[in-house]
Design a protein that fits this description.
The protein has 233 residues and is α/β, with parallel strands linked by helices. It contains eight helices and ten strands. The radius of gyration is 17 Å and the shape is globular.
Amino acid sequence: MAEPIVSFQNVSKRYQVREAVHHLTFELPAGKVIGFIGPNGSGKTTTLKLMTGLLHPSGGQVLFQNERVRRTMAEHIAYLADDGAVYGFFTVQQMLTYYAGIYRDFNAAKAAEMLAFMRLEASQGVRTLSKGNLGRLKIVLAVSRQAPLIVMDEPLAGLDPLVRESVLKGLISFVDLDRQTVVLSTHEVSEVEPLLDMAILLDRGEVRAMDSTDHIRETLGEDVVQWMKRALT
């Protein structure tokens, strides 16, 4: 059996008096598109930050390719944050050049292709981008990396509902699932569902359910939204 790309072993994270996630134990298979879903405040963003090494667990351990996750894992894990690290004083092209200088796995040719797909102008100033176009730029920055793990926190945030489907399809078409794994969190469950191989439901900092989307649809006879609602009742 193939080794998991990510493993959470009894992981908890406390912020002062509040415990955001507790006793998370799960494994994520490589080469899949995996969605973390759940209500606001369920612990999705905390879980993704623990996965990328941006947060250190209060208890338990997180492993990436059988190594304990640490902040320096950024060279192997591409992370698209909901609040995104982009700089308004750059143009779009300068932002790509900046990323290429930081990450050795940044693929400039793929980035240029994605810019065209996302209909972004390389010469445009980042601070002048609409919220939707800023979201597209962050997707380009994350997916243009050839990292084995791409983690995206709410990649559809700010995107016009009319373009989400095309952006999602394009996003996945630029990922090499023979060599890469995609983990994302989302509130737009029904829109993302066609892309998912696995869904993990978080609620109040705990895993309430996890399953392959094939099993949910073919064996349980539900879509992921129905599966989620049933698990939360």
